[in-house]
Amino acid sequence: MAVHWVNYDLNKAGQNYDELIKHLKSYASWARPLKSSFFVETTLSADHVRDAIRKYIDTNDDVVVIRVDGQAWASFGLSKELTDWMHQNL
User: Fold this and answer.
1) Which residues, in sequence order, are CB contacts of 1 under 8 Å at separation 6+?
2) Quick one: DSSP state of residue 57?
3) What is the pTM of this model?
């Protein structure tokens, strides 16, 4: 399993994030470090994660999916629950 960091901007005013967020939360393990980003743990490649997201967004939206190796990271202002997840999964 690998962890991917999914970052997104839905650029059209009034966009509904609910279905996208529901999809991202459907992965076996996930965390939401920032408003428009998720960590998801999956056996899928970054390409497959991106492609699965495409049905929840419009063509003018932006998505970046990066496989995270966890060798180094730092944070500020995140909850203990979130940083605990990051320590365990990254």
Assistant:
1) 28, 41, 42, 43
2) S
3) 0.89
Rounded mean pLDDT of the chain? 92
**Domain limits at 24?**
2-89
CATH number reported for the structural domain that contains residue 34 in this entry: 3.30.70.240
The tally of domains found in the chain comes to: 1
Encoded tokens for 18: 């609910």
Q: Residue 42 pairs with which residues in a beta bridge?
A: 2
Instruction: Indicate the DSSP class of residue 55.
Output: G
Per-residue pLDDT reduced to its tens digit, 40-79: 999 999 999 999 999 998 888 999 999 998 789 999 999 9
**Whole-angstrom Cα distance, residue 13 to residue 49?**
24
At residue 16, the pLDDT reads 74
One-letter amino acid at 9 equals D
